[in-house]
Amino acid sequence: MRVPRIVVRKSAFELSVSTEDGRTVFPVAIGSNPDGADKQAVGDCRTPEGVFEVESVEDSSDWERDGRRAYGPWFIRLRCPPWEGIGIHGTDEPGTVGTRATLGCVRMRNDDLLQLVPRVAVGARIEIVP
Hints:
This protein has 130 residues and is mostly beta strands. It has one domain: L,D-transpeptidase catalytic domain-like, CATH 2.40.440. The chain has one helix and nine strands, in the order E-E-E-E-E-E-E-E-H-E. The chain has one helix at 110-116, and strands at residues 5-9, 14-19, 22-31, 50-59, 74-79, 87-89, 100-102, 106-108, 125-129. The chain has an eight-stranded mixed barrel.
């Protein structure tokens, strides 16, 4: 089986996984900055655009932010210099999926993330487009 093509379309709030067997589309949340533009500075709440490599797939089930387990079961860490800490992860707020709601990461419903993780390996390419 060939490597799946994974594309995040920010304007459509979707992540698609394409293989020879077809295409699966999942809804996502992106950076909360209302302009929806490419990331320009640390803290600008924008999701970066480009082709990035999966650096690691980490168990984030017990990670906390502001006293909550906000990242869901997995964190797919992307290598996207100069930015650090950008990834695809789950959420404890599934109602925010389909909106601009993150600090810059791509957020998915936990059940959808559980379907994505087996299809992703370290070194895989993730394309994020406007």
